[in-house]
Amino acid sequence: MIFARSCYLIHDPSLPWTLTTKPTKPKSPLALTPRPIANSPPLFISRVLNQETPLSTAPLIHTVEEEEEEEEEEKEEEVYGLVNGVAGTVSVDNNPPVPSTRYKKKKKLDEEDKSIEDRFKLRNGKEVFAEKAYLVGVERKGATVDLFSIEESLKELGQLADTAGLLVVGSTHQKLDTPNPRTYIGSGKVAEIKSAVHALGVETVIFDDELSPGQLRNLEKSFGGDVRVCDRTALILDIFNQRAATHEASLQVALAQREYQLPRLTRMWTHLERQAGGKVKGMGEKQIEVDKRILRNQIGVLKKELESVRKHRKLYRNRRVSVPVPVVSLVGYTNAGKSTLLNQLTGAGVLAEDRLFATLDPTTRRVQMKNGNEFLLTDTVGFIQKLPTTLVAAFRATLEEISESSLVVHVVDISHPLAEQQIDAVNKVLSELDVSSIPKLMVWNKVDKVSDPQKLKLEAENEKDVVCVSALNGDGLQEFCNAVQEKLKDSMVWVEALFPFEKGELLSTIHQVGVVERTEYREDGTLVNAYVPLRFARLLTPLRQQLCKS
Ligand SMILES: Nc1nc2c(ncn2[C@@H]2O[C@H](COP(=O)(O)OP(=O)(O)OP(=O)(O)O)[C@@H](O)[C@H]2O)c(=O)[nH]1
Ligand SMILES: [Mg+2]
């Protein structure tokens, strides 16, 4: 338990709580660092221990009773040693030595050490300590807006916790008309969770919905001890923080974290007042103001830096757009198989794994079809139900790429029992982005996992704009590419142009970027009927005029 809190010593040095003086007389290791739990955002839910070693688990102060107990044990040890000494000469089977209290205690400690040892795990190349987590959800009576049932939502929260490197040891939920403004759940439920938390040695309680700063504070106070409370948003932010690999993704996550943190700063410094016996009332309050200012400054700096990174990326994108190859975006629920599909079609080598939010940064690769046609395929960050608004806002620029594509491909894990709800959740996020006018294609992925793939394929045929694939084994990929080409026509324009022989380069480009329907070789050149991107059609204007003249 002591070292579980060592994480509070592990934090971004730019964060406010590293900037003030430490209390002079610490009572416990916790008091060494202002404890950002009550209302501050739990920036590091999982224990990233590669920067800091855990504090010793040995108790620092021995009580009188403990000393007496130890003396007793020492005496016992002597006797036990003697018995052992004698037993050495006698048959061990006939006289098995009786283990002393100290021996039992040592064995217990060894077992505890082992179970603690087992909780150190590698996550994204970093060693984390799998803290014991307990999940709590609330089902709103008569709510029709929730896509997922409470059990389903808690199961997903468990997956999120596992992705973040936590060890889920239990969960509970409650049906409520309206959440309690003080503690979100009712007082009886708080008491029930408190006993479960203490019985199971839980270190973090995670709520499935976003909690207000006051609710976080009151719940932590109610659970007591070192139990930390956080919500789904903080957990997702933590996963994003662990996964951010590029500069832009790190900036976006840092911005989202600070925006989440800002309203939750209250009372982070009240320990100063407590330690000074309440003589310096207002000290904590002043500190909150200082911290808020620091956070606001950091948010400003991050926004500016993001702006410049984005300008650079936009420039790159514009350069890409000047080559008029159509762009197809893959969107979908996290873990649907978007990256696997991109990898299969392009050999991109993007990380694809059975964890939530494997991808944070968009990756674009060229797909070359057998008939010579090409399109650019972009893999994007996955969506999830109850996606924190701070994250959508922070990732808006990345998601904007979707709104600039010619086709949006919605990848669905059709083998998932909640496929339909996941589709609705994705559509909900898409409706927040400006993509309604972009043609869409749906891909039912993971057909290899369903019990009757043939039946599913027939079902897909009866649906409009749906293709069945298995991104993992490559089944249906040709059909997918054909469907993409067909759908791309929706965002293209129909042209008829005459390519004189000296314009051979343009003629090969039209085969690359457009969908050529008819080619006729004439004396004065090649006559082509095709669907082409608007940008390319404009390049063809002189050739179309040429056709009118001839
Ligand atoms: N059986 C089966 N598994 C698949 C298929 N496609 C993907 N998977 C698996 O599903 C898991 C998730 O795949 P990803 O490609 O990482 O999913 P994603 O949509 O990119 O996920 P995020 O990046 O988290 O949004 C991986 O373990 C894949 O191997 C498929 O067609 N069949
Ligand atoms: Mg991915």
Which fold name is given in CATH as the topology of the largest domain?
A: Rossmann fold
Low-confidence stretches: 1-67, 76-93, 267-276
CATH architecture classification name of the largest domain:
3-Layer(aba) Sandwich
User: What is the CATH level 1 assignment of the largest domain?
Assistant: Alpha Beta
GO cellular component, one term: cytoplasm
Pfam family, one: HflX_C
Protein name: Hflx-type G domain-containing protein
GO molecular function: GTP binding; metal ion binding; ribosome binding
Topology:
Layout: E1 47-48, H1 64-87, H2 101-118, E2 120-123, E3 126-129, E4 132-140, H3 150-164, E5 167-176, H4 187-200, E6 204-207, H5 213-223, E7 228-231, H6 232-243, H7 247-261, H8 270-275, H9 283-322, E8 327-332, H10 338-346, E9 363-368, E10 374-379, H11 389-394, H12 396-403, E11 407-413, H13 419-432, E12 440-445, H14 453-462, E13 466-468, H15 477-488, E14 493-499, H16 504-513, E15 515-522, E16 525-532, H17 534-539, H18 541-549
Parallel strand pairs: 4-5, 4-6, 6-7, 8-10, 8-11, 11-12, 12-13
Antiparallel strand pairs: 1-3, 2-3, 9-10, 14-16, 15-16
Helix pairs in contact: 3-6, 6-7, 7-9
This protein binds guanosine-5'-triphosphate and magnesium ion.
